[in-house]
Write a structure and sequence with these properties.
hydrolase, alpha/beta, 6-stranded mixed sheet
């Protein structure tokens, strides 16, 4: 019978209507629903005409029967607690997987929430493909015992805040954590979604020593603002890639030392000794090397510095390999010319912008770095035949999102959600998201927008949770990686709202 795609529309007094005017071509692939918040999801109610017979729903891989009323054929699927609600990433968009017995004609769908809110979610209707999807999903081997992450603010889960005491004010963290979490985001980062997809807890930052942090499943060495190149005397962010690698070496040595102790109290907080060889080493760094260079160098000098940047990166990878690392996952650099910060600073002349409104020179530099980074990953794979080096094309995923933002349920591709200044960018580099400062004699606050799920950009530099969720879903299709693993897709991405 195949499968069809539908989208739940905007909220009304009772819930949401199911629109039939979405076709597979129109409906975005990957995740498109971002508006189910903590402690709000109660259940779904589906109303079907008498000639339809919806039988069951797949949730977290478990088939659950639906219950029918005697007259109206109303089926109530409730309550579903937020931890149990799953959307399935298939060859099309994500959603509940529903099996039915007759050709679908028309229906309405309503979701009961304590308060009305917009839901952007595609519902996957299927009968024969359900078991096929889940069989393929379970065949993919992302079974790493631990993850060790290196990077900048794109994957920093609290390192800079812990390391230098840099405060992050609300509304940072408002979507998922309900408070600032050390992430420069309204919620979760790409690394959080990827860890969640692997059934692993979020990574604790290496520098955070308060609250008995557990490093059993890995450690995050990323810190916001950091570069691949060593910091200069004027650098405000000291934890460069080389420092992060050195921190890892210290971390590993100390772990192995503690594991030898007769005391077992530490073991539940520490990775096992073999996790260092079996774990996944993730990298998302390099954006700040380029972005920072443009403040003091012309484009040709920025481009000329790329081999030096990548030589430093290669040196760090070699050190990790010598320490037993064998599984490397490398994100390339996104389209930094499309960040509101760079558009505001370098895009005052319209001739400097491309057709998307992004700074051309910055994206040109990002493309060249990515080209050489890809070649480096190929070289490393050839050099280390017993290693696995995966290169992930974040640039293409993010560029596609910005170019086709409305297709994926967004309304603002470049403008910051949390900022000051209003249209067109809502960005002022003197007033960071959540801060209150005096500007031109008046006290102003960089506030968050009313609905961050409509924005790609959170604070002028970093992406919103909604955008990070979309990027993660595309990463997990496998088609943006080299080597690709798209033939092993679809992947089951469990979203724990």
């Amino acid at each position: 019978m195949g499968w069809r795609e539908y989208q739940l529309g905007k909220s009304n007094a009772r819930g949401f209507s199911l629109h039939k005017n979405y076709t597979p071509r129109d409906c975005p692939s990957g995740l498109s629903g971002y508006s189910i918040f903590e402690n709000t999801f109660q259940g779904l109610v589906f109303d079907f005409p008498r000639d339809e017979y919806l039988k069951d729903v797949l949730v977290n891989g478990t088939r659950i029967p639906l219950f029918w009323g005697s007259s109206s054929l109303k089926q109530t699927f409730a309550p579903l607690q937020k931890r149990n609600f799953t959307r399935v990433v298939g060859t099309g968009p994500t959603g509940l997987v529903l099996s039915y017995s007759k050709n679908y004609t028309t229906a309405t769908s309503e979701a009961l929430f304590p308060q009305a809110m917009a839901l952007k979610i595609c519902v996957l209707l299927t009968i024969t493909l359900c078991s096929f999807f889940f069989r393929l999903a379970s065949s993919i081997d992302f079974n790493f015992p631990a993850v060790f992450n290196f990077g900048d603010s794109n994957s920093d889960t609290g390192g800079l805040v812990a390391g230098v005491g840099d405060p992050l004010d609300p509304p940072n963290g408002q979507i998922y954590f309900q408070k600032p979490s050390g992430r420069f985001c309204d919620g979760r980062l790409i690394v959080d979604f990827l860890l969640d997809a692997m059934d692993m807890p979020f990574l604790n930052p290496y520098l955070d020593s308060i609250g008995l942090p557990s490093f059993r499943k890995g450690c995050n060495f990323a810190a916001a603002g950091c570069t691949i190149l060593p910091p200069t005397g004027s650098s405000a962010f000291p934890f460069s890639f080389g420092i992060q690698v050195a921190q890892f070496l210290r971390f590993k040595a100390r772990v192995l030392e503690l594991l030898k102790s007769a005391k077992n109290a530490f073991r539940k907080y520490l990775p096992a000794a073999d996790y260092f060889a079996k774990g996944l080493y993730m990298f998302d760094i390099g954006q700040n090397d380029l972005a920072g260079a443009f403040y003091s160098k012309p484009l040709d000098q920025v481009l000329a510095s790329i081999p030096t940047i990548l030589a430093e990166f290669e040196a760090g990878i070699n050190k990790l390999y010598d320490q037993g690392a064998r599984n490397f996952w490398v994100h390339n650099t996104g389209p930094l010319g499309c960040l509101a910060q760079n558009v505001a600073t370098f895009g005052s002349d319209p001739s400097m912008l491309d057709e998307l409104g992004c700074v051309s020179s910055h994206n040109q530099a990002a493309r060249l770095l990515n080209l050489q980074l890809h070649a480096l990953c190929k070289k490393l794979q050839s050099q280390y035949s017993d290693a696995n080096v995966t290169y992930v094309d974040i640039f293409t995923i993010k560029s596609n999102l910005i170019a086709n933002y409305s297709r994926y349920g967004f309304e603002q591709p470049i403008m910051a959600c949390c900022g000051y200044g209003g249209l067109p960018l809502n960005y002022d580099n003197t007033v960071r998201c959540g801060q209150t400062k005096v500007v031109n004699g008046s006290s102003v606050t960089a506030k968050g927008c009313s609905d961050s799920t409509e924005y790609v950009n959170w604070d002028g530099i970093h992406y919103t949770e909604a955008a990070n969720q979309y990027v993660s879903s595309q990463i997990l299709t496998g088609k943006y990686s080299d080597p690709s693993f798209s033939d092993q897709m679809p992947f089951l991405l469990k979203l724990k709202f």
